[in-house]
Specification:
- There is one protein chain.
- The protein is α/β, with parallel strands linked by helices and about 270 residues long.
- It has one domain (about 10-265): Vaccinia Virus protein VP39 (Rossmann fold, 3-Layer(aba) Sandwich), CATH 3.40.50.150.
- Helix content is about 35%, strand content about 25%.
- Helix 1 (about 10-25) runs parallel beside helix 5 (about 85-90) and helix 7 (about 160-165) packs across helix 10.
């Protein structure tokens, strides 16, 4: 594809993220209930009448939404991009896009003005430099193009965070940007905001180990600097379970995700 240019080297923290999601490629789809729910909600939010000639699935993962976008826009050319080569290896054989590219959202290996729609669901929370993501989106979009994204805000997995706080002082839960930070950065991006809203999404689990297993299977377990090294001892696990039980509802143990939906347009 002629629009692709060479990608720069990834930073060490990005390599850790890429490696984590690469390892999770084979288990990801089986536990991706939240990802499918949020991605489908993002598709439903796309502007009415949108007819892209080329779309980019940014942070495509296993390619689930690349295949959805191909069905929504059968006349368009699709590009699927992810920083995790393991995810791309899983996605390529299933099709949905004309090109599958390893690349970084903060430095897209695409030429300027080459896509009409950037779709990115639950991937950009792993990007440390969100202003760079917005600059790159603006650069590669054609005039009138749309950047549709969902991401996670602070307050995500607050039940798990609070439970760990009752056990020790280590960072066990991934940190995410605040809603106010997203609002400020999008306002400063030069892209026009069509929507920027936060919606909580709550999953329920019978036992805590089901939640922790799902996070590991998704590759979304703790990737923060300052995380504790080594294995967590049985006493701390028992204390964590006891603390989390305080949140139990008739539906089970809640895990709340604060999801932000953004819809931005490049005016010119």
């Amino acid at each position: 594809m002629s629009e692709v240019v060479g990608a720069g080297a990834s930073l060490p923290d990005k390599r850790r993220v890429a490696a984590s999601f690469s390892r999770a490629a084979s288990s990801y789809d089986a536990v991706a209930e939240l990802q499918r729910t949020v991605g489908n909600a993002l598709i439903e939010r796309l502007p009415v009448g949108l007819e892209p000639g080329r779309w980019l699935d940014l942070g495509c993962g296993t390619g689930y939404f690349s295949r959805q976008l191909a069905q929504c826009f059968p006349q368009a050319e699709g590009v699927a991009l992810d920083i995790a080569e393991g995810m791309l290896c899983h996605a390529r054989p299933q099709g949905g896009a004309e090109a599958f590219i390893a690349g970084d959202a903060e430095c897209l290996p695409l030429r300027a003005g080459c896509v009409d729609l950037i779709f990115s669901s639950l991937a950009l929370q792993w990007c440390e430099d969100f202003p760079a993501v917005l600059r790159e989106a603006k650069r590669v979009l054609r005039p009138g193009g749309v950047f549709a994204f969902s991401s996670l805000c602070s307050g995500t997995l607050q039940e798990l965070r609070d439970s760990w706080q009752a056990v020790d002082g280590f960072t066990h839960v991934n940190r995410f940007r605040s809603r106010e930070t997203y609002q400020r950065l999008c306002a400063d991006s030069g892209l026009r905001s069509l929507e920027l809203s936060v919606r909580p999404q709550v999953l329920h689990f019978a036992e805590l180990r089901q939640l922790t297993h799902e996070l590991k299977a998704l590759g979304a377990h703790n990737l923060n600097p300052g995380r504790p090294g080594g294995l967590t001892g049985p006493a701390r696990i028992r204390a964590l379970i006891a603390a989390y039980e305080q949140f139990r509802t008739p539906s089970g143990l809640p895990a709340t995700y604060q999801v932000i939906y953004g819809m931005l347009r490049k005016e010119s």
